[in-house]
Amino acid sequence: MIQSLFTHISKLVASFVLLLSAVSCDPTSRLTFSISVADGLVDESKDGRLLLLLSTDDSSEPRFQINDGPNAQLVYGQNVVGMSSEQSVVFNSQQFGYPIQNITDLKPGEYWVEALLHTYETFNLSTGHTVKLPMDNGEGQQWNRSPGNLYSTPKKIVIEDGQSNNFGIVMDQVIPPIEEPEDTKWVKHIKMKSDLLSAFWGKDTYLGAHVLLPKGFDEYPEAHYPLMVFHGHFPSDFGGFRTIPPDPDLEPDYSSRFDITGYNIIQQQEAYNQYLQWISEDFPRFIIIEIQHPTPYYDDSYAVNSASQGPYGDAITYELIPYIEEQFRGIGEGWARFLYGGSTGGWEALAVQVMYPNEYNGCFAACPDPIDFRAYCLNNIYEDDNAYYYPSEHKEVLIPGHRDYLGQVNSAVRDYNWMELALGDKSRSGGQFDIWEATYSPQGDDGYPVRLWDKYTGEINHEVASYWRENYDLRYIMERDWDKLGPKLQGKINIYCGDMDNYYLNNAVYLMEEFLESTTDPYYAGEVDYGDRAEHCWNGDQKNPNHISRLRYNTMFVDKIMKRIEESAPDGADLTSWRY
Description:
Layout: H1 2-25, E1 31-37, E2 46-55, E3 74-83, E4 88-91, E5 97-98, E6 109-124, E7 130-133, E8 150-152, E9 155-159, E10 165-174, E11 187-193, H2 195-201, E12 206-212, E13 227-231, E14 254-255, E15 260-261, H3 263-278, E16 287-292, E17 305-306, E18 310-311, H4 312-327, E19 337-342, H5 344-355, E20 363-366, E21 400-403, E22 409-412, H6 413-423, H7 432-440, H8 462-472, H9 474-480, H10 482-489, E23 493-498, H11 506-518, E24 527-531, H12 546-549, H13 553-556, H14 558-568
Parallel strand pairs: 1-10, 13-16, 13-19, 19-20, 20-23, 23-24
Antiparallel strand pairs: 1-4, 2-3, 2-6, 3-5, 6-7, 6-8, 6-9, 8-10, 11-12, 12-16, 14-15, 17-18, 21-22
Helix pairs in contact: 9-10
């Protein structure tokens, strides 16, 4: 009996030793992180994307250092359902990461580590699908600072070479709510419930705007005003408008993008200059609005209707803008509405003009996101088979994603997409390529956007590409429908782009210009212009450097808008009440 028991114990010990040996030799268990929620931090379980963030740079928290460039720090992600303080979630070799895919490949050394839960809500869509997505909470769909997200206090760890490294991380913080901006004499803030969007998302959904009022708004109650719509990324408040001179105590900062010291002072001075111009006696009186229309996929909707995001185009054009015009005495007619913006806002300005040709009287689209998908940055989504690599039999050649004005490349298309893949699956990263999918793609059987290409391999789905062409390729749509659109768009299309755009967006503008200039029935009668060696966000200013002209969007197109009004306003239009 004793011998039998001894033999049994010996076998158990031997098995345990073998297990320990296997664990120590198994690379999947060499490095693990166990993430939990502090007791009492939340009163209910959470769904979302759990992110493990590591950095070798102590200049800021790891959550603020995730990007696609050479200084990119590390992120690993996985979905969680019902996470609470009663459980922990393990990160090991099974989670995809960027820029180092496998966590076990991290080099030994010191790291700052942080965990963050990007929380998801459940939406019961009008399409019959149920999806889980991050609700915007007033921050413009930024996962690293979205109110309600949980995160841990960053701490330093040491990964030791050849050792089993197991780290525990407790999320002990909640990102606080963001205070809404207050109204001033000049800037008003509005928010309205959209019936169209609320029906689509299955819960109350709001649109907002920051409204810049003209001088004399209260003194001339009989005046009604033209409307300028500044499209772009989520604005926390009306930007580039300041009623006082620059702060004399402001410490000059450095802009690495423009290689300028004191750019913060320049920005304040330009904002003050705009105020002085706005209140000058001879400046035309307009209403300018900056729209807030974040979606669960991005910081804005791209201002068009889409399968996975809903009818944002109709909601903005037929609900929000008439509401603003009624509240602030807009003229309320298509001839008196104008669109402008850069980058995302450039695409939106052109797309809205094309898709609602009678509702607006001109667009000024600067450095627009790809407006011809034969030049989807450096991809031709109709002919290319892979978005990440140039065709090659024996070598791997990455397709560039970002360059400077000298053509020096610092990231690839694959970098952007792999970063997004770590941050969120099903187009939920909040990144640039994912929002293009969320806007342009058909809705899948699971309720999420169908991928244009495999997010890991880059293999392009040409059926999805065909759907994009028919519904969102602006050059293709204009060329296909020019017999109907041409008469409605004549004189309304203006496009500007630097010929060294960082994201190669000028390539699509070349293709659009080729179509516009070769079409004479009718001729488009607008303008396409390029900035020599100008990088992203060049907007048509041939006299000033890009770092200055990008701060003058709200005033630089006014002369062209006034000329357009003089040439196109219908008989009986109000051309006087707002000219005081």
